[in-house]
Amino acid sequence: MNTAKEKPVALPRLLIVDDDPASLRLLNAILEGVAKIHFATSGEEALRQVARHEPDLILLDVDMPGLGGHATCAALKADPASAELPVIFVTSCADTASETQALALGAVDFIHKPVNAPVVLARVKTQLALKQKSDQLRRLTMMDALTGIANRRAFDDSLHLEWQRVLRHGEPLSLLMIDIDYFKRYNDAHGHPVGDTCLRQVAMAIADMAKRAGDLAARYGGEEFAVILPHTGLQDARTIAERMCACVRELAMVHGDSPVAPHVTISVGVASMTTAGDAERLAEAGSEPDSATGSSTSCMLIGPARAAPETLLGLADQALYMAKHQGRDRVAMQSGKLDPGWSPTAIAAAATMILLP
After folding, report:
1. Strand, coil or helix: what is 24?
2. Are 274 and 302 in contact (CB under 8 A)?
């Protein structure tokens, strides 16, 4: 008999937006236990909550002072980070024009006031079930079949979303580019089936070090991996990268043809887009050698800057090149200050001059 306790299923997140306390209490009573319910009493507050903690479904009142329901929905749909969130309008308007406008703005349904409890419950459950199925399908299409972590498509989507958050909120964003050292030699020495096992184990080691909310570890291609670290400055990203190197060493996977070590190792390039305040502090630190991983350099991009996320990707790739050039099995970074007013072309050119020896 299996006596192991099953892990409790996490409830979906529901955000109810209404400026009427009585309506909030009523909807809470109807939907209690169906979802983890959060409240906002204005459109402005709703947008702030969505940016911090993405809900699975939003119930949105139409008539509110300040930013009304229609304007709030339009703002949500205009933001790539929240554009796919399902919104149900809650409205006292029952005319065709109002319902058509709601659907045109991207709402998935609407509920008329005064609300009918069974109708509210049924419609919310339907939309939450659809969201769950959509999320499951999305996870499958965004997963690398061999390693079980995110694939290149998921990485590209996530990097663009996080870049937009940086431009809006000025939070630091770091990126790691990771390569298994001499992996072709590993395949030649041990065979491709063993090579596949190596890829899976390294992927899991990397993913175990990137488990915070918002972190994303992905297989970038072949034996190369990438890790997105939102809200993470340069030095914290460096620490995470060094832990990843140590974790892969601890796997002790024998590498029969590596000039670096008798076991599998990785090289990591670190780049960070950070706020000007952090930049001044980090610039003072310079490029100090690291006792655990050998020579260490750092690369950062001051922002927000008028540049595409590919700029940050290019910087991390350049840092990875430095790690390999310096002997592999290490984290490579290099400090540099870039003018946030420069064009993407100028930033890329300056990055090359800063990073190359």
Report:
1. helix
2. yes
How far apart CA 111 and CA 174 sit, in angstroms, is 42
Burial classification of residue 174, based on how many CB atoms lie within 10 Å of its CB (0-12 exposed, 13-18 middle, 19 or more buried): buried
Cβ atoms of residues 326 and 318 within 8 Å: no
How far is the C-alpha of 75 from the C-alpha of 49, rounded, in Å? 13
Interatomic CA distance for residues 235 and 241, integer angstroms: 10
pLDDT digits (tens, 9 = 90+) for 189-241: 999 999 999 999 999 999 999 998 889 999 999 999 999 999 898 889 999 99
CA–CA distance, 50 with 48 (Å, rounded to integer):
6
Distances (CA, A) of 267 to 7, 206, 207, 209, 258: 36, 12, 16, 15, 13
- Mean pLDDT confidence for 248-263: 95
In the numeric block, the tokens 């001059």 are attached to 353
DSSP assignment of 129-192: HHHHHHHHHHHHHTB-TTTSSB-HHHHHHHHHHHHHHHHHH---EEEEEEEETTHHHHHHHH-H
How far, in Å, CA of 198 to CA of 268, rounded? 17
For residue range 114-167, list pLDDT tens digits in order. 999 999 999 999 999 999 999 888 888 899 999 999 999 999 999 988 887 777
CA-based nearest residue to 20, from 61, 73, 52: 61
Pull the structure tokens for residue 225.
Answer: 């991996």
The β-bridge partners of 180 are 266
How many secondary structure helices (H) and strands (E) does the chain include?
A: 12, 11
The pTM score is 0.65
